């Protein structure tokens, strides 16, 4: 995957590319290590997410990989093998910030997954709102096989996708799941033709980005904050999100455009 004139680099291994005005592609670009999450990659991923979160023109973010056979293979175990206990402890907040950075992006996010998405790599995908995979995708959280647990959000995000018992089975066995089964289990949301996960994710992002940026962010906030609450509390979260957008410029423009039978020109206010 080559560079582009509108590419911004965050260190050597993270790039952000724009597709039109409103779709941002966040690229994991450490191909020699199959995008293994090292301390440096985690730092740069956090920087890129911070910049995107502060960019009002970015309506949708698509996470992709520059490696032909992997989305991300998880933690850089070669780096960790040299760590002292103190160094491992110092790395922990760096990694947490990276996963949190993806999870807390305020706009809709889509992971485009092919090849291996394992451990922390799958947790990056799970931190997104939607996952588009191709038939080569293999996902899983194998951390218990090396004496740890999924620590990038996996123990919390996976049960929210597939339910507590199914998540327990996947985490306790650490097994790898191929694309077709992953779709049937709800581990991914859409299966693209082989080699087209990125293209289909970007196409989906373009369709989403045509909608109100105010509405999209408020809807994501309501979905995230309301999940796990009882129905009454969830409806209060929804009402707060509705009130935040009901008197916005986007709402006024959306209603006017509908009545005038034209495409809206969202002010994004």
Q: What ranges have pLDDT less than 50 throughout 5 or more consecutive residues?
A: none
Structural class: alpha/beta
How far apart are the termini? 35 Å
Determine the fraction of residues in helical runs and give it as a percent range.
40-55%
Q: What does the radius of gyration come to?
A: 19 Å
Average pLDDT across residues?
96
Major beta sheet summary: 7 strands, mixed
Shape: globular
- CATH class of the largest domain equals Alpha Beta
EC number: 4.2.1.17
Family: Belongs to the enoyl-CoA hydratase/isomerase family.
Protein name: enoyl-CoA hydratase
GO molecular function: enoyl-CoA hydratase activity
Describe this protein's structure:
By secondary structure, the chain is of the alpha/beta class. Helix content is 47%, strand content 16%. The chain has 2 domains: 8-209, Alpha-Beta Complex (2-enoyl-CoA Hydratase, Chain A, domain 1), CATH 3.90.226; 213-260, Lyase 2-enoyl-coa Hydratase, Chain  A, domain 2. It is globular. The two termini are 35 Å apart. It catalyses: a (3S)-3-hydroxyacyl-CoA = a (2E)-enoyl-CoA + H2O; a 4-saturated-(3S)-3-hydroxyacyl-CoA = a (3E)-enoyl-CoA + H2O.
């Amino acid at each position: 995957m080559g560079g582009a004139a509108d590419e911004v680099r965050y260190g050597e291994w993270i790039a952000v590319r724009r597709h039109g005005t409103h779709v941002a592609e966040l690229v994991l670009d450490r191909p020699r290590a199959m995008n293994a999450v090292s301390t440096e990659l985690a730092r740069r991923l956090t920087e890129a997410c911070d910049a995107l979160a502060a960019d009002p023109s970015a309506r949708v973010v698509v996470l992709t990989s520059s490696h032909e056979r992997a989305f991300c293979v998880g933690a850089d175990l070669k780096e960790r093998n040299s760590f002292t206990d103190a160094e491992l402890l110092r790395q922990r907040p760096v990694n947490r910030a990276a996963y949190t950075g993806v999870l807390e992006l305020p706009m809709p996010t889509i992971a485009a997954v092919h090849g291996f998405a394992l451990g922390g790599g799958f947790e990056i995908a799970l931190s997104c709102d939607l996952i588009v995979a191709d038939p080569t995708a293999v996902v899983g959280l194998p951390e218990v096989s090396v004496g740890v647990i999924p620590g990038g959000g996996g123990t919390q995000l996976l049960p929210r996708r597939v339910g507590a018992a199914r998540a327990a089975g996947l985490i306790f066995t650490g097994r790898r799941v191929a694309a077709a089964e992953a779709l049937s289990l709800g581990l991914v949301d859409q299966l693209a033709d082989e080699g087209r996960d990125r293209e289909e994710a970007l196409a989906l992002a373009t369709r989403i980005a045509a909608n109100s940026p105010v509405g999209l962010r408020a809807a994501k906030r309501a979905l995230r904050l309301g999940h796990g609450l009882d129905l009454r509390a969830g409806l209060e979260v929804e009402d707060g999100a509705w009130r935040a957008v009901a008197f916005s410029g986007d709402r006024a423009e959306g209603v006017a455009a509908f009545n005038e039978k034209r495409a809206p020109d969202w002010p994004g206010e």
